[in-house]
Amino acid sequence: MATSPSPIPIFWEAPLFAYHSFSILTRETGKALLRRKEIDLTFLPFGASEFNPDNSPEYTSILAACIGNKKSTNPLASAIKPIMVRLQFPLRPFPPPKMTWVAYHPWEYSRAPKASVEVMTRTKEVWTPSKFCVDAFVRSGVPVEKIHVIPNGVDTDIFSRSTERRAKLRRQFGVEKDFVWLAVGRLVVQKDYPTLFKALEMLPHDHFVVLIAGDGPLEKSLRKECNARHLAGKVRFCGLRKDVIDLYDAADGFVMSSNSEGLPMAALEAAAMGLPAVVTHVGGTAEIVIDRVTGYVVPPGDAQQLASGLQRVMHASPESRGIMGRAARQHCQNNYGMDAIVQKWLDLYAECFSPARVLTATRTHWNFF
Description:
The protein is about 35% helix and about 15% strand. The chain contains 13 helices and twelve strands. The chain is α/β, with parallel strands linked by helices and about 375 residues long. Strand 5, helix 4 and strand 6 form a beta-alpha-beta unit. It starts with 7 loop residues before the first strand and ends in a 17-residue tail after the last helix. Helix 6 packs across helix 11 (about 305-315). The protein is globular, with a radius of gyration of 22 Å. It has helices at about 20-35, 60-65, 115-120, 130-140, 165-175, 195-200, 220-230, 245-250, 265-270, 285-290, 305-315, 320-335, 340-350, and strands at about 10-15, 40-45, 85, 100-105, 125-130, 145-150, 180-185, 210-215, 235-240, 255, 275-280, 295-300. It folds into two domains: about 10-155 and about 335-350, Rossmann fold; about 165-335, 3-Layer(aba) Sandwich (Rossmann fold), CATH 3.40.50.2000.
């Protein structure tokens, strides 16, 4: 009777319990991967935690798979050479002993730092979420044959519309008759909220509200700028929200004014929720939003073009916005649905893993994490 092949041992070193995109990506993809039997996944938390996950049921599977909580997680205890995936910035420069070293590295700018390039050239492979990142790495000197694209994924079953949820939240915010824009992202320089505020000043349309979900060091100055531009009644700072899916439901459109992005999860979530979007052409945003089909893609830092995109969406008929939204969700399901992305991860693991690579070293004590 044939026996099933042993699961491939995978060690994933990344930030786990923080609010930034690296951590969110690790948790959401990790939970999906943990349900698959083809791999044996162990997490190695990297960096400081920003919240305590201990009493939250949604993190139970992640916590159970962490290095200190698994019964047997010695990578040298198997005859199969494990794969170490590192998702971090800056990249750790030394290779993991007796493991196949993979760097999973999102990136936001046209070139990568020299130090990162030097590390990536030493890894077995480099995995990254968008074609934009591939171009940036190759331009910076990373051999193209090392690089594989594996996009961020979103669970389109969870991120889906609820009429009841939408009506409830719009009542709570008192925006039943307004056009509601949603922006999701930390209040930091990279998100370029000042350009969004300038664009909002240009809109002749009075009946709109912008909800901003996120916190960050610029909150005080951004609030001050809103007041100075007489936008206090139009822009609402919602803070860091655990119910962000409810905000997507309450919204009529999604806006992102960033001056740099990788492959933004917020844009993927908005597409999954069927929202027409207006985004700046940075990083992989144009891979998520198809210009004039699922929304509008405009140059970064250009308030006039951003305002034009916002106005086009608001002035479109409900039927036209519905067509855009359905196209956005379909594009997301086809290219970024979590099931398909998890399969891509498994395929890459299988390609990277070779049964011929068998450990012959003595199984000794290890403490290199």
